[in-house]
Amino acid sequence: MIELDTPLRHLLPAKDAKRLGERPLELVTVADLLEHLPRRYHRRGELTNLADLVEGEASTVHARVVRNESRTARTGRRYAVLTVTDGTAQMTVTYFNPARSPARRLSTGSVAVFSGKVDRFNQRLQMVNPETHPLEDDDGPGDDPDRWARALVPIYPATEQVNSPAIGRCVRVLLDGLGEVADPLPADLRARYRLVDLRKAYELVHQPESKGDVERAHRRLKWDEAMTLQVILARRRHEISAMATIARRPRQDGILPAFDSQLPFALTDGQREVGATIQAELAQPVPMHRLLQGEVGSGKTVVALRAMLTVVDAGGQAALLAPTETLAVQHYRGVRALLGGFGRAGELDETPPATRVALVTGSLGARAKREALAAAADGGAGLVIGTHALLHEGVAFRDLGLVVVDEQHRFGVEQRDALRARATDPPHVLVMTATPIPRTVAMTVFGDLEVSTLTQLPAGRSPIATFVVNAAEHPSWRDRIWGRIRDEVAAGHQAYVVCPRISSVVAGQDDDADEGDRLEPEAGPGGSAPGRGPGSRTGPPAAAAAGRVEEPGFGDGAGSLAGVGVEELLPWLAEGPLAGLRVAALHGRLPADVKDAVMTRFAAGEVDVLVATTVIEVGVDVPNATVIAIMDADRFGVSQLHQLRGRVGRGKAAGVCLLHTEVDGDTPATQRLANVAATTDGAELARLDLGQRREGDVLGASQSGRSRTVRLLELLKDERLILDAREEAGRLVATDPDLASHPALARRVALALDDRPVEYLEKG
Ligand code: ADP
Ligand code: MG
What we know:
Elements: H1 14-21, H2 30-34, E1 40-43, E2 58-72, E3 78-85, E4 90-95, E5 111-121, E6 124-128, E7 131-135, H3 145-150, E8 152-155, H4 164-177, H5 187-192, H6 198-206, H7 211-241, H8 255-262, H9 269-282, E9 289-294, H10 300-313, E10 317-322, H11 325-339, E11 356-360, H12 366-378, E12 381-387, H13 389-392, E13 400-405, H14 413-422, E14 428-433, H15 439-445, E15 450-454, E16 464-470, H16 477-490, E17 494-498, H17 566-575, E18 583-586, H18 592-603, E19 609-612, E20 625-630, H19 638-645, E21 655-661, H20 668-678, H21 682-691, H22 695-699, H23 719-735, H24 743-754
Parallel strand pairs: 4-6, 9-14, 9-15, 10-12, 10-13, 11-12, 13-14, 16-21, 17-19, 17-20, 18-19, 20-21
Antiparallel strand pairs: 1-8, 2-3, 2-5, 3-4, 5-6, 5-7
Helix pairs in contact: 6-7, 7-23, 7-24, 8-10, 9-10, 15-23
The protein binds adenosine-5'-diphosphate and magnesium ion (MG).
Pfam family, one: tRNA_anti-codon
Organism: Pseudofrankia asymbiotica
Region (Disordered): 507-551
């Protein structure tokens, strides 16, 4: 009997074990190899004869190499050309990267499966850089050609050193010697959900006889993933519930009742309900950990402020953390305005009962910062507002009772843990996000939080109409953007023009410098897949680098605005299409006081058009702005677009969002834009978007680790399974938090934690 943690070198030839153990596979133990799942399966019978290949189609052929040549292109670059045949016809296979090409392993006479698109070159069919799987002789038909043709051949993620058939052979050796396997899933659970045991699952996934076998194995292995995750999360919740902290009870004579009675608007039902839930939790001697989800503009700030006032009334302090300085400053102003005299203790216009609001940001002057820090430390400031840096820089509080984190999608599990570890009496935590999160994502990524949702927008909100301005297909539409902006300004409104970058001139330096303003492919829902996100620089080099900035042609083709940055667009707009309007720039590389002044002027209506980067993405609240044009919108993720769009429609007048793109045709990017234009319902958008992305994009960074926890699970498709696993995990942890009677599961969880697999939302 073989144990799952037995090193492979005890069981396999030394040479094989060594190669498997090397990067990037790093398969060291029996479990490593058995969990190294086939990426897909070939059914030999489904292979295409070379004679039947059709130009332009993706095909898979099984062929023998008859010639293997290395040639030199006119540029001097070398490339490899194979001639292959399956007896029905010949084909050319070309590999352009000789150093890494599989051609090196395909000498004349060897056999391989080639998968790729068929095209024609010099009258001959060819595949360029096809996916290539060399076959060993023992993969041949043997005595039973029928069975051979019918079998599913696993195709493993492989390397040059260890190809897929070699991995298959090693797996076979293990499975032959594998006895009973300690199963992490309890037998009763397996019975209830009709899951095969782990050993069987390994057999079915590595040596299936049918698609059904693979499906049965996958369902079982998905359960392992889901249970591991949910047990980790259930244990977090369990630990949190065992933590003790100070209960913060409301006070009749406190600031909150006075504040409520003077609010200029009536709270929505949702705001009232969530408020009551939060108050009840704050009144417990157990730290609250709640996620408040709510559409852009649904009024989360006032909910947070009321929670903060509850804590202040109970003698504690509250911190409000924003993802960027711009937003922290805006929160500070907004909160001061909402509080009025209640936020001005010690000032002339104090209205008792009152507290003080302190702003702590990196760009404060030394004296202002000293004062703010002192007010936080001596408790003079009941409310402290800043960026996330507040936590890392160890700002001292007299009695921190509540931390509110705005725009959670930039705030990971690790930071939440840091908060909990911070004090002897850990603060209550309220996390807020407008990024729509599908339920299953909320349950996995934010599984340690309880969730509340504000579904209703305050009365008086206006609809937003969204249009895709495809300038590649309709060049004349570019002018309509500027025409629309002029119309809105003429009607007394204001506009945003958003660019994905500050400047197109200095390649590589176009990231916005302000920490949270950087363009990252989002890890959160609605983000973008690698290579097509705003962070990717795969677009054509902006022509501005060649000195053509004075013309409205930045990218390919006449008049194209592809790749344009704030610094080029603004002067061109100011002298051209928007001449006569008051135009200003806002981006992270501007000094903080300039950013501040620009925002203040825009808020006061002294600037008509703000040409900005995504610094305005979150929270910026200027109700008089009615139109937003997003340039190169295809470079943004869905949630970013949704956030940006939420900057308009905040007042009485209807909002307009124009999604400019220079991308032609039906691509994932243009599909994304069509989705955004089709609905303003964030939850619906999140579903649409999640459906188009791979799980790795959602779960993010740690998914590259060695023992990845989530490989098969699909957050959208496997919602039912994840819900079931959550329930099972909760029950299991409630009765046996240390998993004492489930050693195999405990081991899996420990392994997963070792790899820190739950820091999903590190980025984005
Ligand atoms: P978000 O949820 O996007 O953070 P905010 O908290 O910034 O939204 O609220 C957006 C605007 O709506 C603010 O100007 C706020 O004062 C206002 N607001 C909040 N609640 C209400 C309400 N119940 N009625 C009317 N206006 C409200
Ligand atoms: Mg907000």
